[in-house]
Design goal:
Strand content of chain A: 5-15%
Helix content of chain A: 40-55%
Oligomer: homodimer
Number of helices of chain A: 14
Order of helices and strands of chain A: HHHHHEHEHEHEHEEHEHHEEHEEH
Number of domains of chain A: 3
Distance between the termini of chain A: 56 Å
Largest sheet of chain A: 7 strands, mixed
Largest interface: A-B, 145 and 145 residues
Number of strands of chain A: 11
CATH superfamily of the largest domain in chain A: Type I PLP-dependent aspartate aminotransferase-like (Major domain)
CATH topology of the largest domain in chain A: Aspartate Aminotransferase, domain 2
């Protein structure tokens, strides 16, 4: 395929995508496919001879598209949103076309420097101290692992007695990062939470004291701003003071909630973040930037580089002493040009329009919470400070019967999801089954929130 | 920006990209920019108000593009190639537009199953045994770390006595993976190489025996097919037999060279790969598929998942027992839909056209090697089995003076790169400075190889 053939197929692709966006709401959010069905329909061997692009694309429409889940659908209330806006898509087209691989400054000088610029822009928009330096990682999972590895290496020989701390509500990637960093389960402390699902600083204090008394060395404390189950916000200041007092690395996981701090009224939920050694927040969730784009901020860049730097002769360049070589700031050597999409998004919307969008989602969340609170047979199961509402249906005859309530709500959610109009997922809060309505897909309007609430109530009545 | 505005700007972007591809050869490969220059020209704060897309794109052309290194340029001879073909770009446009996040089967069933299908296609094209199961990782760095972590965890308590092995010529990501996996430097063995820069199995055997005698436990052996400095190929069978005999995990890093095994005549360089526990090769280097797309093959999927699986309630799905949830096959939770580009590439070209392309590069490499060999003042510094030729200029007056030869060749390479027509990088081979001419960018034709050789000889004569 030469450049003129690309031009032809590229125009067709743009039209297809524009139509897809226009008609997205008419599709099911989650497809009706059985495990193995798509795989079974595809050939078992690669073709020896090439096919015309029209044939391949027809097969995409016939065999792949019917099996796709549509994350951009306005009825997306599952997990957390993964927003990809048109300016972000244009940036991805451009960055991919340029084929830049941004491991070192010299391999794409503008990409490296634009990453420095947009990460500083975002830091300032979030109200983070200028002592933080940013780098784009793929995911919060990787960012948290990067924090754990840096914390571990900073300890030197004491790493063999390193302990790690997070709350019971911390994301599974935190426990995974501890494990991958080689911290055994018997040196990981899962700290209790209060009735808002936020970490109890007193419980952390006790755990730190007990470990110190036992000759162990607290190495890393991870707090969360906006937990996955319920968007609980740990008291970052109190936790940070405890971490600092024992010399532990303090990592704040604000993967979902953090970007909302572009709104000054949300910043109190991040109060104390300036005590952190590292912070992660994902523009690829709520901030209109396609996955993957995880913003990792770190105070001690030298400690970071000490853990991740390599300097074989074949990677050395004349500029190594004066530039950032981002290959030394994380796990992978190769890196895509991800700063471009964040730049296009920040410039296309401007901070004010992004704030307006996030405020709309948060207001819709509060509104849904108020509707739930007003219905006697429905229970809101956690505070809803951001866009997520946790709820369940409690018919009078099931009050107090937790296994029955779990089964009832799981079946209810399955019926709602089966409509294909919306997609919800669930969690457990204090052992109780809860449906999660995560409002934050950028195409979601008030009428979609009304609709999901209508579907839930209908399902509760049947 | 709504879908109609996207349509408009998308069409303009496609035309821009098609023109960019058409005119790519007229650009400098590496830009003439000084560190900090681009950063200094950009505003220090994000805008409060959005800008029209035309303004943003004009700023891209004015401020960013002049600072980009062009990896797709036909004069790209640096590092290894990172090929992005038009079908791959079309797939990336589509996958990005769909916004799929492929952490679990349910979050994109077709993406998960297509990944299973294309990874099996590629495995079979490479001649790898069907006992290998594939998963796409971002980079070989991450794939090798995944192998190390799996190997470590499989050892249980013996991990504290785990030793790790690779050759002196292994990629820096291997040593980095050992370090990140918590294997201290005093338990890492860097094995000597022969005069082709391939690992000496006898040296490995001695090291394994010495460690066993010292009460240590050999945990992982990493062999390379196609080293970064010179595309040396370790004797995979002999190394695999030694690794198996001591029960160590055997990982084969074929990041660059592996994909060439789609050509049967290259497969002898992978002889013995069937002894491996894991293999990595990168379609994003030579196989026309945009970065990132690293093919990781593993024999013991259960061991892999045991290390990387998480199963918090909020990620559980009804299908967990019958599907692959690729979130459990690596470090990040979130994953892009990367199988689509590999599918588009394999279907657009077909295996035969991909073989033809790789054979062209390999033949050009052999041809350049023969030209170097025929010139008395030029020295070819290593075998050139694939597309890479390592060479240096040896003027009679500098024979035997290694520091002077290094300075002379570094200056010579700087002059050649300063033309902007080509981009070369260097390495050290047995302590001697070598220029690397890596032939493999898909737009590179015979005339570009003639040109780089002409530029080198001209620079040698001045």
């Amino acid at each position: 395929m030469d450049h003129e053939a690309f031009r032809q197929h590229g125009h067709a692709m743009v039209d297809w995508l524009a139509d897809y966006f226009r008609d997205l709401e008419q599709r099911r959010v989650v497809p009706e496919v059985r495990p193995g069905e798509i795989r079974a329909a595809l050939p078992s061997a690669a073709p020896e001879l090439g096919a015309p692009f029209e044939t391949i694309f027809a097969d995409f429409e016939r065999q792949i598209l019917p099996g796709m889940t549509h994350w951009g659908h306005p009825g997306w209330f599952a997990y957390f949103p993964s927003n990809g806006s048109p300016p972000s898509l244009l940036a991805e087209m451009l960055a991919t076309g340029l084929g830049a691989q941004c491991m070192s400054w010299i391999t794409s000088p503008a990409a490296t420097e634009l990453e420095q610029v947009v990460m500083a822009w975002l830091r300032d928009l979030l109200g983070l101290p200028t002592a933080f330096t940013g780098v784009i990682q793929d995911t919060a999972s990787s960012s948290t692992l990067v924090a754990c590895l840096t914390a571990r290496d900073r300890m030197g020989d004491a790493a063999s007695r390193m302990t790690a701390y997070c709350s019971r509500e911390a994301h599974s990637s935190v426990a995974k990062a501890f494990r991958l960093a080689g911290i055994p389960a018997d040196r990981v402390r899962v700290i209790a939470v209060d009735d808002t699902y936020a970490m109890l600083p007193e419980a952390l204090e006790d755990a730190l004291a007990a470990d110190a008394a036992a000759g162990l060395v607290p190495g890393i404390v991870v707090a969360t701003m906006g937990t996955t189950s319920s968007t609980a916000c740990d008291p970052l200041r109190a936790i940070g003071e405890l971490a600092q007092a024992v010399g532990a690395w303090y990592h704040v996981d604000a993967a979902y909630g953090g970007t909302a701090a572009i709104c000054p009224e949300i910043r109190p939920l991040l109060d104390g973040v300036e005590l952190a050694d590292s912070v992660v927040t994902n523009p690829h969730k709520w901030l209109m930037t396609h996955f993957d784009c995880s913003a990792y901020y770190v105070r001690d860049v030298e400690a970071l580089q000490k853990t991740f730097r390599t300097s074989p002769e074949y990677l050395r360049t004349a500029q190594d002493q004066e530039v950032a070589n981002f290959r030394d700031w994380g796990i992978p050597l190769g890196r895509r040009f991800r700063a471009l999409k964040l730049w296009f998004v920040l410039r296309s919307y401007g901070a004010e329009e992004l704030r307006t969008l996030l405020r709309k989602h948060i207001a819709l969340g509060h509104e849904l919470a108020s509707w739930v609170d007003a219905e006697p047979q429905w229970e809101r199961m956690a505070p809803a400070p951001l866009g997520l509402v946790c709820l369940r249906h409690v018919p009078p005859e099931l009050v107090g019967d937790e296994p029955a309530l779990a089964a009832h709500n799981a079946a209810l959610m399955a019926r709602v999801n089966a409509t294909g109009e919306v997609f919800l997922t669930h969690t457990l809060l204090d052992g109780r089954y809860a449906m999660r309505v995560a409002i934050g897909a950028w195409r979601t309007e008030r009428r979609h929130v009304e609709r999901v609430w209508g579907l839930l109530r209908e399902a509760g009545e049947t």
